[in-house]
Amino acid sequence: MGRGKIEIKRIENATNRQVTYSKRRNGIFKKAQELTVLCDAKVSLIMFSNTGKFHEFISPTTTTKKVFDQYQETLGIDLWKTHYERMQEHLRKLREINNKLRRDIRQRMGEDLDDLSMDELFVLEQRMDSALELIRDRKYHVIKTQTETCKKKVKNLEERHGDLLLEYEAKYEDPQYGLVENEGDYESAIALANGASNLYAFRLHHGHPPTNFHHGGGFGSHDLRLA
């Protein structure tokens, strides 16, 4: 039995559509290659899939540009003229915009003002006033932001300082760090030893002067008591 006739219409299933495109593209490329070899013809074949993927077949002895040039010469038309003219027009507009911007910059710097009328000078003055107002607003915004940031840093430092004071007072009042309350018989002092992490407290007898040293150069055991 022969294969049934396929209705020529768009294949709705995307997978089947891509498979059909790949198979028939390869068949067309094969026919173009056979035509090039058998008939010594110049063939240029360009294809784009629905996903925008580019495929091209070109005869080994030529290029796509040569085929286009020969096509233009045969028909007496210029395929690139319209595109070139559009590019030239776009370039002309860009140059006009660039020249206008440069002239505007010079005028804002006080140059190239001789050809301006009174109305044009008035408009230029208004534009410069508006620009100055925007610049001032931006400057004040930056100053305000920097000031608020500085205030936040100062506040954080003050809070940190308060926390350190509370922590120090808590350690100062904690008996673990050697502060012993007296009834007035002894005087107490706090000293640092072995770094800032260890606090020691010592008490001196009220009736003994601090110059009472042993021959070894230190306090006696009855003069110094560690908490």
From TrEMBL:
It holds the Pfam family SRF-TF. GO terms for molecular function: DNA-binding transcription factor activity, RNA polymerase II-specific; protein dimerization activity; RNA polymerase II cis-regulatory region sequence-specific DNA binding. Keywords: DNA-binding, Flowering, Nucleus, Transcription, Transcription regulation. GO terms for cellular component: nucleus. The keyword Transcription regulation applies. It is found in: Nucleus. Residues 84-174 form the K-box domain. InterPro entries: MADS-box/MEF2_TF (IPR050142), MEF2-like_N (IPR033896), TF_Kbox (IPR002487), TF_MADSbox (IPR002100), TF_MADSbox_sf (IPR036879). CDD domains: MADS_MEF2_like. PANTHER family: SERUM RESPONSE FACTOR HOMOLOG. This is Uncharacterized protein. It comes from Manihot esculenta.
